[in-house]
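Annotated sample (chain length 94).
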Amino acid sequence: MFKLFRLTAILEGISYLALFAVTMPLKYMADLPMPNKYVGYAHGVLFIAYIILAIIFWFEKKWSIKKGIILLVASLLPFATFYVDSRYLKTVEA
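Output written by the structure step:
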């Protein structure tokens, strides 16, 4: 469960950055909407999976409300899932 959550967190962060840094400029500057569509679908699935796994992981580890909120808010901010991985998830694994 833990490795799946870590992998999902990293992939969700990558898909979020790819969506904003690569496919959105392609859509609006180069008039190529298709990459945005597929990366958007992938990001949507990863976002939902991250939220579900974060809630499960939060209750499984019996973390405080503060840590749980940080896990959930991280899905909304660019680079935040990488922060959660390095700050909270790597320490759990060690």
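Annotation: Residues 2-93 form one domain.
Annotation: The chain has a mean pLDDT of 90.
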